[in-house]
Write a structure and sequence with these properties.
By secondary structure, the chain is an alpha/beta fold. It has one domain (3-192): 3-Layer(aba) Sandwich (Rossmann fold), CATH 3.40.50. The protein contains five helices and seven strands; from the N terminus they run E-E-H-E-E-H-E-H-E-H-E-H. It has helices at 35-42, 85-101, 120-131, 152-163, 181-192; strands at residues 7-12, 23-29, 61-67, 70-74, 105-113, 136-141, 170-172. It has a seven-stranded mixed β-sheet, sandwiched between helices. Helix 4 links the parallel strand 6 and strand 7. The chain is globular and about 50 Å long. The two termini are 20 Å apart. The structure holds guanosine-5'-diphosphate and magnesium ion. Magnesium ion is lined by residues 35-36, 58, 74.
Length: 196
Amino acid sequence: MFLEKTEFFRAESDAAKLPKSICEIILSGRSNVGKSSVINALCSRKNLARTSKTPGRTRSINVYSVSMGRWIIDLPGYGFAKVSAKEKELWRVMIEECIARRKSKKTVYIIIDAFTGPSELDFNMAEWLNECKIPFKIVANKCDKLPANVDLSELLEKISMYFEIDKEFVFAVSARKKTGFDKLKADAVKFLKQAS
Ligand SMILES: Nc1nc2c(ncn2[C@@H]2O[C@H](COP(=O)(O)OP(=O)(O)O)[C@@H](O)[C@H]2O)c(=O)[nH]1
Ligand SMILES: [Mg+2]
């Protein structure tokens, strides 16, 4: 029992107002890719994070506390078409404030759609994280949508090549079917349990 004890901590639209944490896993990805569903599956909880069929719902940073100062952060999704230039700019500032300016130890999970594959926006995010020297891993969600003949190992290999990261930093999961979470949970627990 560790991730299972995760509780909702707060929703914040201004990352500068967030208190200090010890370490945090930040989930980022396109709107509707299943970030909230991944949080629920990761913590073996049904309704910890609110999921939605309509993209673009989450407009705030949702913080979940696994234990004191050890957080999982659900960022608003990117790539939602019906968003004004002003909103996009607000999103960028929010993300920068949350990821680049806060000093806590952090790692980012970029959630991508295993079926449609990574998008340009996912690559942009990865590139920016590289520039900021913030480590990231890739979580390919919705694997249940893949045809049965897809070789998962090959898919992971391809994704690791696209993002130029080691294969061990790529995870294939289905938040819907709750598959592939053993490895991801182990990774999250290892990161969050590190000494401060
Ligand atoms: N097929 C499939 N659908 C999923 C999976 N994970 C999430 N979804 C669906 O994708 C939609 C968006 O999920 P949500 O977690 O709210 O995405 P978010 O906007 O990234 O937080 C919902 O309709 C979910 O039921 C998955 O692993 N497989
Ligand atoms: Mg969400």
